């Protein structure tokens, strides 16, 4: 009780004794969070009273510590400096500090005011996560960051490279499949390297067959029919010949990835020639396209039809029939 009363009296006396014209100087000190902050106040020769104050709180009177904060101390080993040490510096330490000394023979105090700035690296603490949505939906991207100085927040599509927005919130109205990709939020304030976080925007849409390739091959050769489709989720591929689903047997192989299906014929036979339909489907829809496996000859020989089958017998029968009809007609005219 007596100690508390004594301190109150001391503060009143301190203000009363040091009030007067005096001298006031100002200095700026900047450190990063976690670093050591030292406020260096030059000792006045013959000064009878010294003190460190933080705003309205007394930290030290002379060498006596009044602050309960363990991180705050006087720098030792310096005869010509009355230096305040804060280690490590934290964001809440930012503010004004006063070094007050009463020169001998003067009523007013000489005061040096230190403005301590504690710079804090940028930190992203709230950001939109991965999004999966359908085409024509409205999407909002949000990114919040802290730091000192206040960070500048930027959004950018990085895969594939795209637009950049210098703001913390971005609205993407009526998104299309071209808007899908990886987006990055970055927060920078110059204290350290920017803070970065990424999210993936996935746009769902029904399949669209983007490319089909037929093939030509002679008997015994290798042939490949190719079907490529774009879709999200990735499509499932199914092959049909006429109304029958193609199965991987009878000399046929199937190789499929997320966006492409290959129908392979290692050893083409007459039974393989024909028209094949590729169907790509997912939960949102279906798309189909036809491929033709034909004989490799660009010019059909007299003995092959479009499927490569022998046709000389059919051609000869047709000519013979025409010849018989012509003879019959000529006989009727002769009569």
Keyphrases for this structure?
single chain; 335 residues; mainly beta; eight-stranded mixed beta sheet; 2 helices; 24 strands; 12% helix; disordered N terminus; disordered C terminus
Summarize this, please?
The chain is mostly beta strands and 335 residues long. It has helices spanning 2-18, 312-334; strands at 23-32, 37-39, 49-54, 57-61, 64-65, 72-74, 84-86, 95-102, 110-127, 131-134, 139-148, 152-159, 161-165, 169-172, 181-188, 195-213, 215-216, 223-232, 236-241, 244-245, 253-256, 260-265, 274-282, 285-294. It is found in: Membrane.
Query: In this structure, how is the largest beta sheet organized?
Result: 8 strands, mixed
Uncertain residue segments: 1-6, 8-21, 298-335
Structural shape: rod-shaped
Give the integer mean of the pLDDT values: 84
Which bin fits the share of residues in helices?
10-25%
Structural class: mainly beta
Helices, by number, come to 2
Strand share of the residues? over 45%
Question: CA-to-CA gap between the ends?
Answer: 153 Å
What is the string of helix and strand elements?
HEEEEEEEEEEEEEEEEEEEEEEEEH
The strand count comes to 24
Pfam families: I-set, Ig_3
Domain Ig-like: 21-99, 122-202, 206-294
GO molecular function, one term: cell adhesion molecule binding
Subcellular location: Membrane
């Amino acid at each position: 009780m007596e100690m508390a009363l004594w301190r109150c009296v001391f503060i009143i006396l301190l203000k009363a004794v040091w009030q007067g014209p005096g001298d006031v100087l100002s200095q700026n000190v900047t450190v990063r969070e976690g670093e050591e902050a030292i406020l260096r106040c030059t000792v006045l020769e013959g000064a009878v009273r010294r003190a460190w104050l933080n705003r309205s709180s007394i930290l030290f009177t002379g060498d006596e510590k009044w602050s309960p904060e363990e991180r705050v101390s006087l720098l030792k080993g310096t005869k010509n400096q009355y230096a305040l040490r804060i280690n490590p510096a934290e964001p809440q330490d930012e503010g004004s500090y006063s070094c007050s000394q009463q020169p001998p023979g003067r009523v007013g105090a000489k005061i040096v005011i230190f403005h301590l700035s504690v710079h804090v690296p940028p930190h992203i603490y709230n950001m939109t996560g991965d999004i999966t949505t359908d085409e024509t939906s409205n999407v909002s991207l949000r990114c919040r960051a802290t730091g000192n100085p206040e960070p500048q927040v930027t959004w950018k599509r990085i895969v594939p490279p795209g637009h950049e927005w210098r703001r913390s919130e971005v609205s993407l109205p009526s998104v299309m499949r071209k808007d899908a990709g990886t987006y990055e939020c970055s927060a920078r304030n110059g204290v350290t390297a920017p803070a970065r976080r990424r999210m993936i925007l996935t746009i769902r849409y029904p399949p669209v067959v983007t490319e089909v390739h037929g093939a030509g091959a002679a008997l015994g050769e290798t042939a490949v029919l190719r079907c490529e489709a774009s879709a999200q989720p990735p499509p499932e591929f199914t092959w049909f010949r006429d109304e029958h689903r193609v199965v991987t047997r009878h000399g046929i192989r199937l190789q499929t990835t997320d966006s492409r299906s290959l129908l392979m014929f290692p050893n083409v036979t007459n039974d393989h020639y024909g028209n094949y339909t590729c169907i790509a489907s997912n939960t949102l829809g279906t798309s189909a396209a036809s491929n033709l496996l034909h004989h490799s000859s660009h010019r059909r020989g007299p003995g092959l039809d479009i499927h490569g089958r022998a046709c000389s017998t059919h051609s000869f029968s047709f000519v013979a029939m025409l010849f018989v009809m012509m003879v019959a007609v000529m006989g009727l005219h002769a009569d």
